Amino acid sequence: MLRVNPFLPSFSMFNKIPFSLLYRSSFRRTLRPFVTCRCNLFAKPVSVSNVNANFFAVDKTRNLSAVATAKKSGLNASNSSTNEMSNKEKKKAKRESPEFLLKVKLDNCSKHGKLEEALGLYDESISNGVSLTNHHYNMLLYLCAREASGDGGQLDELKELGLKRGFEIFQKMVGDKVSPNEATFTSMARLAVAREDPDMAFELVKQMKDLGILPRLRSYGPALLGFCEKGNAEKAYEVDAHMHESGVITEEPELLALLKVSVETKNTDKVYEMLHRLRATVRQVSESTLQVVEDWFKSEDAANVGSEKWDVKQIKEAVVGGGGGWHGLGWLGSGKWRVVRTTMTKTGVCHSCGEKLVCIDIDPKETENFAAKLAELACSKEARADFVRFQEWLQQHGPFDAVVDGANVALINSVNFNLNQLKKVVNQLQQMSPSKRYPLVILHQSRVARDRNNGTWLEKWKKAGVLYSTPYGSNDDWYWLYAAVSCKCLVVTNDEMRDHLFQLLGNSFFPRWKEKHQVRLSTTKTGLVLNMPPPYSIVIQESESGSWHVPSIAGDDLSNPRQWLCACRSKKTP
């Protein structure tokens, strides 16, 4: 008797594709590559299990295509009594409906990772004839994928349950003609990789593009990481190229996986490429990435790669053209690398090799574009009239040499608002200013109104045009950040700038701007001390002589110097 893998759907699910879809040219184009694959399956004898697996990899994406292009059937008649219901009654009826109650319960299961409870709710709903929506199915598929991929814990029975029921639920979704979206594809890709089938995960992402559904980074992750874990570097590079074509930017986990598989397969050109991509997008790396980089430079493969002779003029021109800190023309030097974890002096000199790191310039045009983007975002999040009024005020009273996040400075090591502390910082900045001008202080209106004891000082600053009170209901972060960017000056704050507001600004320009403009404060027995931005860029740097310096993100506080990986060669003169 033939045994069939219980994790795979039965072929009966394919009969549920609407017959009319087969005559649509767009749908036939979607199926064309898979029809070829299906024919090849029978070109030579294969095992039953392989036939099932290949059919699933092919026809699962076919069903996603069919569901996405199928039109949902709707009810032709409406109940006249429903039209007579008030909006309040309609909302109440909706909240009490089985579909809404199921949604609330599944959301709770998703929040707490309760797969078994969610499956119980699903089975009960199906037996009671409850109509499931895209949201219901996506919550269930997410939980199944979570357990199947091992993110939910280490219980093997739960992994198997998530894998088995995930495919079953998806088959039901297909049968109900519920259209998939990006979340559906992503969960199915995770389930495919949990079944050790990254090829299927990649095909699913390709189908997303064909159907006009924009893939996200998380959509590609399962396929990319799946190929990397299997050591299939060429397929991983193929996924990476597909991501680039789709405008999806890789982050550190994906670049780390690509770096590791490049090291393992001894692809030295790809190792070089990944280091530069880490430099451009990540800048400072985690400990896990730093360890892989360190192991690479200590390896025999690293010792055997590199040019013994090179054009010094060409290298210098490439460094200048790139803005400094890298040339991108390949490995320089020969022989083993000297690899050391070290720190930098305050001026950016490596304690290990003595090389001085450079300060990489920021294009003024980039700053202008960023200021415009910042203003646009602020106007969309704040009361537009309030922020425009601030822009006009800043044009009239600016520019400034420094901007102070008043509340942040006044509350450092203090439970209560400490204006004396703020005054000392302001006076110190005024003395440091080439024009001896006071910095701009940004304070929320509520702070100004409640601090009557220090009203004289605040009024003095206000009349001098160096204090701006942000209106009630506003977020003063937008104000002090925009002022510093538009004035191209320093910003004094200990705010780490990591919350949702700053995430909106992206990871391309903002980290570079912050590094060169943020003044942080540390506490001493004599009071607060200003810590100016470093005179060098905290980013992976490749020197003209071929040495590398890689900064870590660990130890990024003022009292604990940042760790750097220094890799250099003794034979580095052309």
TrEMBL record:
Cofactors that this protein relies on: Mg(2+)
Subcellular location: Mitochondrion
Enzyme class of the recorded protein, top EC level: hydrolase
Disordered: annotated span: 75-96
This enzyme's EC code(s): 3.1.26.5
Each PPR repeat, start to end: 181-215
UniProt keyword list: Hydrolase, Magnesium, Metal-binding, Mitochondrion, Nuclease, Repeat, Transit peptide, tRNA processing, Zinc
Domain named PRORP: residues: 344-566
Domain PROP1-like PPR: start-end pairs: 90-303
Catalysis performed (reactions): Endonucleolytic cleavage of RNA, removing 5'-extranucleotides from tRNA precursor
Domain of life: Eukaryota
Sequence ranges of Polar residues compositional bias: 75-85
Gene3D superfamilies documented for this protein: 3.40.50.11980, Tetratricopeptide repeat domain (1.25.40.10)
PANTHER family (alphabetical): MITOCHONDRIAL RIBONUCLEASE P CATALYTIC SUBUNIT (PTHR13547:SF1), PTHR13547
Family membership noted in the UniProt record: Belongs to the PPR family. P subfamily.
Name the record gives this protein: ribonuclease P
